[in-house]
Structure formats: structure tokens, C-alpha cells
Amino acid sequence: MRSQTAYRRSFVSDVLGSVGIGLVEFAEVYILFANVDVLGELDFAAAALLFALANLGFSVADLLVGHADHLPVYLREGTLDAFLLRPLPVLAQLITSDVSLRRLGRVAVAVAVLVVALPLNDIDWTAGKVALLVLTPLTATAVFAALFVCAAAVQFWLVEGAEFTSSFTYGGSYAANYPASIFSLPMRLLFTFVVPAAFTAYLPVLVLLDLPGPAGTPQWLGWCAPLAAVVIWAVALTGWRAGLRHYTGTGS
Amino acid sequence: MRLFATLVILGFRRWSTYRLATAAGAFTNTVFGLIKASITVGAIGAAGGTLAGYDALAGATYAWVVQALVAPVNVFQWNELALRIRDGDIAVDLARPLDPQFAYLAGFLGRAIHQFIPRGAPPLLAGALVTGLALPTTPLPYLLGLVSVVLGVSVSFASWWLVNLAAFWLIELRGLLTLHIVGMSVLSGLVIPVHWFPDRLATLAALTPFPSILQAPVDVITGRAEGTAALGVLAVQAAWLAGVLLLGRLVFARGARKLVVQGG
């Protein structure tokens, strides 16, 4: 990890790039709210809170396991065979092989937006809501990390079609930045129960703000976010094991 | 000109090898189209039915056409030149009896032509089925639109070329390339139409070549800019193209003079 900071100028520009990505995503929300007051029953403060929670979860997950995206490269180059020889779980090795500190930039943007947005919202605090707020970034990180692992598992079959899975990892994170109520019902169900993006921020925000939530995704689901994280991790690990068993290497 | 055409065809052939990757990309473009169309339609609904001249259908059309063009104009990555500068292969390009900028532009256009239909058609088809599309019924906007797309792809190339040249002076470009993508994706209208920007941001966008990459072709194709207005858009694109290409030539010449390649 320390090696990443050795080339200071490169590291600084990498971090700046990462800050930039976070800012761009927030700029999108900002531009939208320069034109409208309320989007999907959320005002700007609420949307900023939603954005911050979703982005915090995604950026931490990206920092920790985002390079699982590089699995196709490892598969093609045979690096994975080296992982298989070591007496450690392959998934753990893949995850620890490259923790990208530069992605801290994006985490910082999400935290900054969260700190500013939280007091702007009129939240009726209870002990349960405090617990939910603390838990939400953790469950969001878990959900997005599990999505990355699911995506990596599928790579064992796709290899060249790696971009398919971006629809669900990056697409899920993109969709999570916005109130799910603007989506049509099938899409909303897709991004809630198949790709559990709505659990990462939207549903908990409904609970925090005492909003009823649209048809099909009622507010009480917000309390189920940890459950969603457990379920998606079960799917991810099953998929990963199946994928690894499918893998046959490329020969010497 | 014949040489240019040959290089374009070679660029096309090079990319046509990756079929599954193309299909995967088209699928991803379509899913993002669904999300983006929902956002624009949602915002237009929240604004009371129209927003800066876009009604719900026009807003959805905007999102789908952008998704159809995003692969050809290549907003997300081009570091071929930077890699060649870093490992010294650029010396081979310099030794060839043709202009490097010209040759790389041809390859870039060839790639764009290859991506045009397979990456463009699926999002448009999905858009027609899901939200419907508001497209002009006369042929002229499409003809002008085609010119505009070619100009847009070329402006994108010119801009990437310039950023890649930083490799003559810096070793690691990843951060810089990321910042370029960041600037490009906001100011080109990739995420939200430039026409929706608040004043200051709109001025900033107008001072960069980026709106010429996506916003301009989409305006021409969807008929938002018609007749002389469309010609005006094309003129702005052409001016940016000439300016950024020229700047790229000057910087390249500077860099090539400084370049020392190790070899044996």
C-alpha cells in the first residue's frame, strides 16, 4: 500500500482524478436541482443526502474490491494460477492484491457532501434512525462489494464480455444516486430486488425522512438493508465458488 | 485521401475482432440509457412538463441518442498515443512516411464507424420501445447530423491527442486522463444537456471544445438546431476541430524535438 504513495506527483494527480469523478457525479445532481425543486419527492437536501450515502458506500467498495474488475486480465494472463497455488482463499487474495488508495478522493467527496447535507435535512431523530444512519454506509459498502464479486464470478464464463457486468455494478451505483421513485415499476423492482441498489441509500433515506415510498418499494424495506446485504453476499459467494470450479486455466 | 481511407478501414477491421465485447458494450449503453432517460423524464416532469425547451419525449430522446453516440465519440478512454510515447514506440511512428496525427485520426474514425451501428442501434431500439423517440421525419437533419457526428468524433480525437501528448513530459498519466474524462463527461452534455446548465457552468462549457463532441451532434440529429442554426453548430464544431488539431500539432512537434528514445 505504501508503494502507491511513492511517486508523489502521480499519486496526487490520481487522487485529484478520483475527487473529480466524485464531483462530476455530484454536479449532475446539482445541475438537475438548479432546474427543479423536487425530484421523486426529494428536495435538494434530501437528494444530496441520498447521493452522499450511495456514493460513500460505492466508493469504499470500489476502494476495497473495485479491482475485481481486472479479473479478466488475470484470467487471460494466467496470474490467477499463482493465486490458486497459495494456501489462502483466492477471493481474499484477489481483494488484497491491490487496494487502490487513489480512490480515497471519491470517498472524501461523499463524506463532505454527507457532512453538509445531513444538518440541512429536517430529521426526527430516534435511536433507531441513528443506528440506521450509521449502518447504512456499511451495508451499502457490503452490497456494492458483493455486486463486484458477482460481476467477477460471471467473468469466468464471459472473459471478453466483461462490460456486461458494468451494467449492474456501475449501473447499480449510478441508479442508487437517484430516488428510485423516478423509475418505472419494473426498473424499480429490478434495482431493488435483483440488483439491490435501492437498499444502499434510497430506502434508508425514506425511513430517515419519514417518507412513504412509491408502490412496490414501501418505506419499511429501509430497515431490511442489512438483510439485503447478507442475501447478495450469499449469492456472490455461491457464484464465485461456481466460477472458480468452472475455471480450468490456460495450460503452461 | 486514399491513404486516409485505407487507414480508416484498417481501424474498422481492428475493432471488428472483438464481437462479444461490442455486444457487452451495447448492452451496458442500453441499461445506462434506461437510467438516464428515467432521470431526464423525471426532471422534466418535476419542472412542470418542459425544461429548457425539452418536453418529456424530447428529454428521453436526448438520453437515448447520447447513449447511441457515446461509444463512437469515445468519451471514456484513449491512451494509445501516451503508451507509445512512454515505451518509445513513438519513434517508429515518427519514422513512417506519413503524419502521425493524420494516421491516428484515421484509426480513431475507423473505430467510430465500426461502433456506430452495433453500439448505436441497440440503445435507440430500446428507446423506441420503452419511451418512444422524437426524431425528425425529413432526411436533412440526418445528413447534417452525420457530418456533425464525424466532426464530433474528430473533436474528441483532437482533444484526446492533446492530453496524450503530456506523456512527453510526465510519466504517469492516469490522473490526468481521468480528469479529462471528468471534464469531458460533464461539459459535453453526456450526463445532462448543456442547455440545462446554470449560467456560469454554461459559460465554462462554451469555452471548451467539449459541447462540440456530443451536445452538438445530438442537437442536429434531433432537429433542435435546424436550417441555418444547424449550419452554425457545424461551423462551431469545425472551428474547434481546426483549433485543437492545430494546437495538437504544435505540441507534438515540441515534444518530438525533446524526445530521446533509448535503443540499440
Describe the protein in words:
The complex is a heterodimer of chains A (252) and B (264). Chain A has one domain (9-246). Helices cover 69% and strands 2% of the residues of chain A. Chain A has helices at 8-35, 44-65, 71-77, 79-85, 90-96, 104-120, 127-158, 163-176, 185-194, 202-209, 225-246, and strands at residues 38-39, 42-43. The radius of gyration of chain A is 19 Å and the shape is globular. A two-stranded antiparallel sheet of chain B has the order 1-2. In chain B, a hairpin with a 2-residue loop joins strand 1 (50-51) and strand 2. In chain B, helix 10 packs antiparallel against helix 11. The model of chain B has no long low-confidence stretch (mean pLDDT 86). Chain B: This is ABC transporter permease. Chain B: InterPro entries: ABC-2_transporter-like. Chain B: Pfam families: ABC2_membrane_6. Chain B: Keywords: Membrane, Transmembrane, Transmembrane helix.
* Portion in helices of chain B: over 70%
Task: Average the pLDDT over all residues of chain B and give the rounded result.
Answer: 86
Number of helices of chain B: 11
H/E element order of chain B: HHEEHHHHHHHHH
Strand content range of chain B: under 5%
Q: What's the domain count of chain A?
A: 1
Helix/strand/pairing class of chain B, anyone? Answer: mainly alpha
* Largest sheet, strands/sense/barrel of chain A: 2 strands, antiparallel
Write the layout of secondary structure elements.
The complex is a heterodimer of chains A (252) and B (264).
Chain A: H1 8-35, E1 38-39, E2 42-43, H2 44-65, H3 71-77, H4 79-85, H5 90-96, H6 104-120, H7 127-158, H8 163-176, H9 185-194, H10 202-209, H11 225-246
Antiparallel strand pairs in A: 1-2
Chain B: H1 2-15, H2 19-46, E1 50-51, E2 54-55, H3 56-73, H4 80-87, H5 90-95, H6 100-130, H7 140-164, H8 174-187, H9 199-206, H10 215-221, H11 227-258
Antiparallel strand pairs in B: 1-2
Helix pairs in contact in B: 1-6, 2-3, 2-6, 3-6, 6-7, 7-10, 7-11, 10-11
